[in-house]
Amino acid sequence: MSRPDYIPSLDGLRGIAALLVVQAHIGLIFPSTTSHLVTVGSEAVGLFFALSGFLMAHLYGSRPVTRENVLDFLVSRFARIYPVYLVAVLLVAMLSGMPTLNFVQPIAGGMDFVRHVLLLGSRGVFWSIPPEIQFYLLFPILWLCLARPHRYSGLIAGFAIVVAVDGLLELPGPGIMLLSKLPYFLFGALAGGMHSHLERWTPSALMGIFTLLLLAVFFTYRHVLPNFSPEFWGLQSAAAAAAIVALVARQPPIAGHFLAAAPLRFLGTISFSLYLFHVPIMFLVHRSFEALLPEPALIAAALFVALGGAWFLHETIEVPSRRLLVTFWQHHRWRLVSRQAPAERIEQAILDLQETEKRLLGGAASAPAADLREKTGRTVIQDDGDEKLRA
């Protein structure tokens, strides 16, 4: 965790969001607790979206927008999301196929299973994965805007219009389409793009207290003031989520120390596996031990097993599959990135002729053609090596 772009407090923020999603689903497994719990699952998912937008802009926004970098980005994000997501879909489909279990969030039939495999399903927590993937596909365009804002001002204006229309239409939040979630990603990306420009700002302890207070208000205001904003999804909550992520990323005193604590960072590390698997794990614990344990002990046991199971799945499926796919891509990426379009080959040929002409005019005419080819070959090999090191 010593990467220069790693921000420990954001891991802790992600861990809190994941834990609140789990808490929101306790009533799904244990219906008797519903009247005693205040759930903030929507707020947690909205924060996830803003955090995702922030990290994409923070990690990639300053890099040049080349075909190689864009392909690396897309492969990295696919490897991060899809393999462990597919395992979760398979597990839920298997539990759904056992009528005696009566699983709480079933994938109903073969067509529903195919929709989820193709990232078109919305059962349970799976509804939030398609918008995430759609944002990754959109991000290269946003990447251009971050890298060259003056050149792509028209695109930036287009994004602003989409956000304004989204706010006016008040589209429902949950669902597999990106449009209603786009403000969370975009505001988060804007915060991520601005992060490097705030390096000279050193937040105070008072700002740390304010950050924690803002986080608490974000999660509770709908329940404390239900008439103020009965619906969560909207531009105001997207802006608030992005502001929280931006403040936490500056790691202000008190808030930074709290969110960077080891237990919260651990939850952040396993957050995606915990998000995907907590419902089936808690459901199986409930069905297995409901006759043996009183409900409070059963809830505690289900939470403990969900955390342990998420850690195990993170270590055995999420991380190895991501590493395997990224390594495979790095070993074979040259087959794609080395292919040049016809126009690029023509342009390169012209540049080669111009370089040869300069050498001839500069007195290099006496150099044998073989030496020239040898030097050119060494240059190409060195470039390939540099590309592999950068990958």
From TrEMBL:
The chain crosses the membrane at residues 12-32, 44-61, 82-104, 124-145, 152-169, 201-221, 233-250, 262-285, 297-314. It comes from the Bacteria. One of its GO terms (biological process) is polysaccharide biosynthetic process. Coiled coil: none annotated. Keywords: Acyltransferase, Membrane, Transferase, Transmembrane, Transmembrane helix. PANTHER family: ACETYLTRANSFERASE, BLR2367 PROTEIN. This is Acyltransferase. One of its GO terms (cellular component) is membrane. InterPro entries: Acyl_transf_3_dom, Acyltransferase_3.
